[in-house]
Amino acid sequence: MKKFTQFLLTITILILTFVIYSCSSTKVLEDCDCDDYTDIDTMKVSIVDTVRGTETVFVDKDNKFYVQIGCFANKNYAERFADEAKNKLESTILVILSKDNLYRVMAGEYIEITDAKNMLSSVKIKGYTDAFIRDKYGPVEK
Q1: Class of 45-141 per CATH?
Q2: Residues of the chain where predicted confidence (pLDDT) is lower than 70
Q3: Which is the most buried residue in 7, 72, 110, 116, by most CB within 10 A?
Q4: What pLDDT is attached to residue 30?
Q5: Whole-angstrom distance, CA of residue 52 vs CA of residue 42
Q6: CB within 8 A of 130, min separation 6: which ones?
Q7: Cα-atom radius of gyration of the chain, to the nearest Å?
Q8: Domain extents in the chain
Q9: pLDDT at position 28
Q10: Within a 10 A sphere around the Cβ of 141, how many other Cβ atoms?
């Protein structure tokens, strides 16, 4: 009788584990950059012109580009890093709290990606080698 009870308990635990695991929702991110990709109303479309070899990217007109130079879970660390970056880069530095409670340190806010690319080059020259261009949805260019 004792073995039968242990057997039932083991089966019950296995079934509950399977049900809990199969009912839980997991979200797969496209990159490992701490981003929270929520359902969005706008869509990025990339069209490659095979004749000319150029790429055209259409994005929503309210989209802005940023050069991310740091990402911190601790607000004090992010603010300290931003102060140092402001002195070193002599540029506008933003600290933005993302939906996943991370403090992203950005160098500038740009409407045109070419301006963001220029800033990215400048930032990398000044030692922020892991910097990259992002928009509100995630990384755009590294």
Answers
A1: alpha beta
A2: 14, 16-62, 142
A3: 116
A4: 37
A5: 27
A6: 69
A7: 23
A8: 45-141
A9: 36
A10: 13
Global pTM reads: 0.57
Residues in CB range of 31: below 8 A, 6 or more apart: 138, 139
Q: 112 is written with which tokens?
A: 């045109």
pLDDT of residue 138: 87
β partners of residue 72: 103
Q: Tokens in use for 131?
A: 């910097």
* Confidence (pLDDT) at 132: 94
The DSSP element (H or E) to which 115 belongs, if any, is helix 113-125
Q: Return phi, psi of residue 51, to 5°.
A: -75, -45
pLDDT at 105: 95
pLDDT of residue 27: 38
Q: What single-letter DSSP state applies at residue 127?
A: T
**What residue type is assigned to position 141 of the chain?**
E
Q: How many helices (H) and strands (E) does the chain have?
A: 3, 7
In whole angstroms, give the CA distance from residue 101 to residue 48: 36
Angle in degrees, CA 82, 133, 139, rounded to 5? 110
Q: How far apart are CA 96 and CA 33, in angstroms?
A: 15
